[in-house]
């Protein structure tokens, strides 16, 4: 099994590598500190599993996930994030992730998750399974931001993190005018009048 770890924190990569080295069938572990580096490594290598963080400099993990599933459908992706699973797991699974773990639970579940998704299966924790059931069964729990498109959602999170329109445009390789259009749609759909409200919403909903 060949695994790529993508996380911008060196200590986190070291910890994950240490855990993965306990698996007898792992023959290669590579590391990337951001999404662009991960995509470059995948382009020149042959990997079975990617352990991917969401919060990355430049393009975020969800965008990296989308590109991986577009270019290398056979690669299984496990999202390993600091964000609570109820906020991002469903979105990640819809984009093609094979599983979702929070960093708080990684030490106890990571190896089990890797073994399962390496076989092409999905891995979700019991609590996530319950959240998925509720999400599918009860429309009242759908978050307000679920009305946003994927790119609008990604733009909102970047704005909440204090990024400028130029920086967001550079991250997405699009014009400032296009980013401004996304911002206008976000403010309209979410009924925000200023960026401070957008940031407060993201903080309250643990999106940043």
What does this 3D model show about the protein?
There is one protein chain. The chain has 208 residues and is α/β, with parallel strands linked by helices. The chain folds into 2 domains: 2-137, 3-Layer(aba) Sandwich (Rossmann fold), CATH 3.40.50; 144-204, Arc Repressor Mutant, subunit A, CATH 1.10.10.10. Helices cover 52% and strands 12% of the residues. The chain contains 10 helices and 5 strands. The chain has helices at residues 10-20, 35-43, 61-71, 85-94, 106-117, 126-137, 150-160, 165-172, 176-190, 195-204; strands at residues 2-6, 28-32, 49-52, 76-81, 99-102. The chain has a 5-stranded parallel β-sheet, with helices on both faces. The protein starts with a strand and ends with a helix.
In short:
The chain has 208 residues and is of the alpha/beta class. The protein has helices at 10-20, 35-43, 61-71, 85-94, 106-117, 126-137, 150-160, 165-172, 176-190, 195-204, and strands spanning 2-6, 28-32, 49-52, 76-81, 99-102. The longest helix is centred in the C-terminal third of the chain and has 15 residues, at 176-190.
Question: Which descriptors apply to this entry?
Answer:
single chain, alpha/beta, Rossmann fold, 2 domains, five-stranded parallel β-sheet
